[in-house]
Amino acid sequence: MSSEPLLDQLIEALRCLPGVGPKSAQRMSLHLLERNREGGKHLSTVLDEAMERIGRCSECRNLTEREVCSICANDQRDPQQLCIVESPSDVIAIEHATGYRGRYFVLMGHLSPLDGIGPADLGLDQLGERLGKLPPEEMIIATNPTVEGEATAYYLQRMAQKHNVQVSRIAHGVPLGGELEFTDQSTIAHAFSSRQAI
């Protein structure tokens, strides 16, 4: 049992969230205590249940409270397309922004030898088994355009080639509505090198 006052413990506990510093955590804590105790109780209940019941899908590694997530269990999804993403938030983004109807594999990160994150940490052995047993026609690599994301994409491309699976990579470049004047040099260079005929 901590000797810290409960309010200080609450503020410190909220700081575990990304982007929440001491002032934001204090503001959240005081809001819940002063104006929304019912909301705080509901948050506590749902958070406790989520931490207990949400795990990874046995097929794609996405977050789910079932053995197999709703996307993998949906027989309307195309098993011949497999999109590889870094995180569950990438699945949500693709589902909301596109008409993609294939399956996913969620790495839960990217290769980063400096941080001690290797292929086994990303479930790439599980992906290799999947490619060996039920290879899709196309593997879409949707890792982020960072140094680590590109290294991960290269590793995934080599894996797919071993299983004779066609590989594609999502395009990167100048964002829709963006202006070249305000776009960084590496994005412009990538956009130029990946240009397409129209």
How is this structure best described in words?
There is one protein chain. The chain folds into 2 domains: 6-53, RecR Domain 1 (Helicase, Ruva Protein, domain 3, Orthogonal Bundle), CATH 1.10.8; 79-169, Dna Topoisomerase Vi A Subunit, Chain: A, domain 2. The mean pLDDT is 92. A 4-stranded parallel sheet has the order 4-3-5-6. The protein has a two-stranded antiparallel sheet with strand order 1-2. The radius of gyration is 21 Å and the shape is globular. By secondary structure, it is of the alpha/beta class. It has helices at 6-14, 22-35, 37-53, 70-73, 88-97, 124-133, 147-162, 185-193, and strands at 55-56, 63-64, 78-85, 102-106, 138-141, 166-169. Strand 3, helix 5 and strand 4 form a beta-alpha-beta unit.
Keywords:
198 residues, alpha/beta, Helicase, Ruva Protein, domain 3, Dna Topoisomerase Vi A Subunit, Chain: A, domain 2, 2 domains, 4-stranded parallel beta sheet, two-stranded antiparallel ribbon, 8 helices
Question: What's the helix and strand layout?
Answer:
Layout lengths: L5 H9 L7 H14 L1 H17 L1 E2 L6 E2 L5 H4 L4 E8 L2 H10 L4 E5 L17 H10 L4 E4 L5 H16 L3 E4 L15 H9 L5
Parallel strand pairs: 3-4, 3-5, 5-6
Antiparallel strand pairs: 1-2
Helix pairs in contact: 1-2, 2-3
Round the mean pLDDT to the nearest integer and report it: 92
Shape: globular
Are there runs of 5+ residues with pLDDT below 50, and where? Answer: none
Helix/strand-derived class?
alpha/beta
Fold-level CATH name of the largest domain: Dna Topoisomerase Vi A Subunit, Chain: A, domain 2
Q: Briefly, what CATH class of the largest domain? A: Alpha Beta
> How would you sum up the major sheet?
4 strands, parallel
Strand fraction equals: 5-15%
Which percent bin holds the helix content? 40-55%
- Widest sheet, order of strands: 4-3-5-6
Tell me the total number of β-strands. 6
Separation, N- and C-terminal Cα atoms: 67 Å
- What is the radius of gyration computed over CA atoms, rounded to a whole number of angstroms? 21 Å
CATH architecture of the largest domain: 3-Layer(aba) Sandwich
The helix/strand order is HHHEEHEHEHEHEH
